[in-house]
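Support reply, case 0932

Customer input (verbatim):
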Amino acid sequence: MRSLFTKLLIIFGSVVTFAVLGFGFTVVVFVEQSINKTVLELSLRTTQARAEYFSEWVRARKGEIEGLAAIPAIAEQIKPDALTILKAFRSTKTGIYDLLFYGGLDGLGYTTTDAVPNISNRSYYVEMKNGADFAISEPIISRATGQPVFVVAKSVKRDGAFYGFAAGSIELKTITATAESLRLTEKGEHEFGFILTKDGIPLAFPDDKLRMNVSFTQEKEIQDEEVKKIFASWAVLKPAAEKMTAGETASYIFTKDNKKLICFFAPITETPGWSLGIIVPAQTILGTADKIKFLALISALIALIAALLITGAVARLIANPLIQTEKKLHELASGEANLTARLPVKSHDEVGKLAVAFNTFLANLESIILNLRTSVRENEFIGDSLAAGVEEISSTLNELASNIESMRKNLITVSEEVMNINTDAGETHESSVSIDKLIELLSANFANSSTAVEEMISSINSISKITEDKTHLATELSELGSTGNSEIAEMLSLIKDLTTSINTIKEMVKVINGIAGQTNLLAMNAAIEAAHAGEAGSGFSVVAEEIRNLAEDTNKRAK
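Our regenerated output:
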């Protein structure tokens, strides 16, 4: 059976545990759904900003080429002046332009390297000839330098029709350097940017062996085994590449070499369908959220431990007074049951009130027990008194019975003597003397009997009064406890026995009355016989009269 402290600890601990775990779970879910989502959205916005930065970079190049196309020497295709201007401008843009060139309707390009390639079949030239103001080519191999480049060109129109152009060739390594310089975080560890064309071809990529050699969205046979192996390791990027070539702005989470990575991508405006992607380790982006979740779990665990300790202290604070009460009750229920013991009252709350009420109960119980002990002692004294009274009555009754028996014998003797009067008149005087003695003896016996009867009646009255008083006392004692029931039952038994004895005495009195009647009758017969005897029986007549008077007096006293 669990103790009260254990039950309170289980109840409070369960509530606190569920509350803390619920709070921790809520924090984790909030971090997972809110913070992670916010971080991903912020990273995606940063990627869009980086793509816009690259768009601005391209836009700046377009502005520079547009400025060159507006120069009259270039617009009018004045060769010496135009090339001088282009060469001077290129010298101020070292590291950006591979070369600058201009041209006209003949499809030839006059470059700053003095080479004159035929570009009439280039896509950007065709676009401008068909009416486009600006054209940006897909990556191509420069016919002047042999390097991978892309061209930014601006058409020159006369009377609304294509007349010529100015263009700049930018090496891909410039794009790669620019793209790879884009980062999402301050540290930028293990982060890199890349650019895909609308056909999924990487213009900028950390591994230069993949640049211009593969397509992430189109099936293309790869001859070089090393390139094939490298490309296979990046095949997991294909879903992101498909969204990038579709012009979407989104993020894609994937795993490469057992590392969780996130690719954020956004389209680059001012380009022919290019898209910028930035790959970042998931830990770099979500690490803060993971730390928050970890700290939340640690905080929840610490809070849980602290809450359980507080719960234990509170449970003990509640249970201790009740445990002390239980111990006191156990002490009272076993051993000598010390009713003078009291519970300590240390508070004024419900537990303190319980201790006060229990102490009051103990005080009342102690008072009742003391009163009951006093009543038991008084009852024992009354019992002893009743036993002595009964013993005295028993002795008196025995004496009365003995006197009655003696009186019966004497009456028998008197009867025999009276009957002998007729047969032996000569012995009248002697008989009279004998009768006189007998009468004296009878009188003494009757006197003793009368005294005994009076004492017996007095004792009965006294016993009756004692019985009434003690019956009332016994009633009060029965209210104090069941322990006096046995003594009262014994007293009632004695009273019943006493009533029986009184009835017996009444029967004896009836017998005495009968004897007195017989004695009176004998005295009358003796008087008649004395009258017959004449003067000789006059003395006997007097004796007979005295006997008759004695009988009547005895009869009156017996009543």
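We compared this against your earlier run and they match. Two observations from our side: Residues 421-429 have pLDDT under 50 and may be disordered. The radius of gyration is 71 Å. Please reopen the case if you see a mismatch on your end.
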